[in-house]
Amino acid sequence: MxxxxxxxxxxxxxxxxxxxxxxxxxxxxRERDSLMQVxxxxxxxxxxxxxxxxxxxxxxxxxxxxxxxxxxxxGNPESASARGVIQENMQYIQQAMQQNxxxxxxxxxxxxxxxxxxxxxxxxxxxxxxxxxxxNQRIQEMEASLAEKDITIAEQGxxxxxxxxxxxxxxxxxxxxxxxxxxxxxxLHTAWFVFGTKAxxxxxxxxxDGDVLKTGDFNKDYFTKIDIRTVKEIKLYSKSAxxxxxxxxxxxxxxxxxxxxxxxxxxxxxxFWSISKYLVIKVK
Length: 284
Hints:
2 domains, alpha+beta, rod-shaped
């Protein structure tokens, strides 16, 4: 009899260890997946920034090539074909510089939200701005030289002088559009949840005469604001839980954890929050 008891205790111990091992492996797996998601996000952000930087550098190279073509054509300014080459390349330079200014403005916007090394990106942006300013001064000197030779570039010159003002206006418009889109996106993916006892919910006017959220005078500050793209699990810290708001079946599970306390797990966020962006759960 004693041996049987020892054997039973040993089997129970092994089963407990096996269960603990499975739980540990699951936790390690979740942490690994979360880490990989962060790494992939940073890789995508870095690739996007580097692509933008490379475009600016390529723009500088194209401008330098156009400057070279102008210098060659300037050797024979009396030729009608040379004048055409000069005017065509000056226009090309203006367009390339405008594009570079817009790309640099985009990088400055990314600097506000980047999760990468902000100081390194800020230094890179400043270097690009310095190169652009140097190139702009060189183009202005070239324009002055061509003007002395009676080459008609008045229209292009006026466009270059207005580029800074246009870029500032464009940057401001882009910033406003980005802020509007960000606000709309945030609102679209925002929801609120609350869990509490019947007495607590009634006190906050969330539950009134057996109905939930039937009037608009409930205490909205009592709710917790969340981003539905990231929050997939809500711990209720109670051994009794009842959903009071309507959410489509099959979009969530309401199960107890190891301590016997309920946990809400959302399996399909878009459908779960499609009926209401408010979630109310009664606990004891």
